Amino acid sequence: MNVLIADDEVLLRDALAGLIKLSDPTSIVKTCGNFHEIAGYLKTHSEIDTVLIDLYMPGTNALKGPCQVMREFPDHFVILMSGAASEADIVNCYNAGIHGFIPKSIQGRAVVAAIQLVQCGERCFPASMSHRRAETGPTFTEREMRVLRELQAGGTNKIIALSLGIDEASVKGALRTAGRRLGARTRTEIALRSAKHMTTDAA
């Protein structure tokens, strides 16, 4: 597990880092106490693929900050943490396409398990969200929606990248993430399932 922990509480982030390293000594774990440091860490530590962010840490502007991280680093997993989030906060995180939400009240081993689950391509939210997942199905970020529409129109990765003004790696990352959420393996499956899902949402 190669993880960046972003939390302004020194004790908490150090404790989480210790748990992760204890669970997997080969893990690379970085920590920061300022939201604005996240982008710098991800740019200089390419081995990091998962970011744990305190939903209410200074500089995040609640959900706006984590969503910005997802847009800038579409190949990374973003998991939010909070000890004071309401049910509405958690639902908003889910609908925004965040990969997981971890209450700070859960046990350390459960935190590690949640991270591993997300890194396997699953979304991880509290049990109270189960009914919400069943009702809404997969959700996508704005970039993923744009990539999926281009895919449905028959665009190749290169054409999609040129059309949206992004690089091909970002296109591949968006399709890979969308495929995991849809349970689809091939481009054709992703195109068909996403088209069906987006049509259902618009109905």
Report on this structure.
This protein is of the alpha/beta class and 203 residues long. The protein folds into 2 domains: 2-136, Rossmann fold (3-Layer(aba) Sandwich), CATH 3.40.50; 142-202, Arc Repressor Mutant, subunit A (Orthogonal Bundle), CATH 1.10.10.10. It has 10 helices and 5 strands, in the order E-H-E-H-E-H-E-H-E-H-H-H-H-H-H. Strands 2-1-3-4-5 form a 5-stranded parallel β-sheet, sandwiched between helices. Helix 1 (10-23) crosses helix 5 (108-119) and helix 7 (142-152) packs across helix 8 (157-164).
Report the average pLDDT across residues.
Answer: 84
Task: Please tell me the total number of domains.
Answer: 2
- The percent of residues in helical segments reads 40-55%
**Beta-strand fraction estimate:** 5-15%
Secondary-structure-based class equals alpha/beta
Evaluate the radius of gyration: 17 Å
Sketch the major β-sheet.
5 strands, parallel
CATH class of the largest domain: Alpha Beta
What is the helix tally?
10
Question: What is the CATH topology assignment of the largest domain?
Answer: Rossmann fold
Going by CATH, what is the homologous superfamily of the largest domain? Response regulator
Q: Which residues sit in consecutive blocks of at least 5 with pLDDT less than 50?
A: 130-135
Shape type? globular
End-to-end separation: 40 Å
- H/E element order: EHEHEHEHEHHHHHH
Order of strands side by side in the largest beta sheet? 2-1-3-4-5
- CATH architecture name of the largest domain: 3-Layer(aba) Sandwich
The tally of strands reads 5
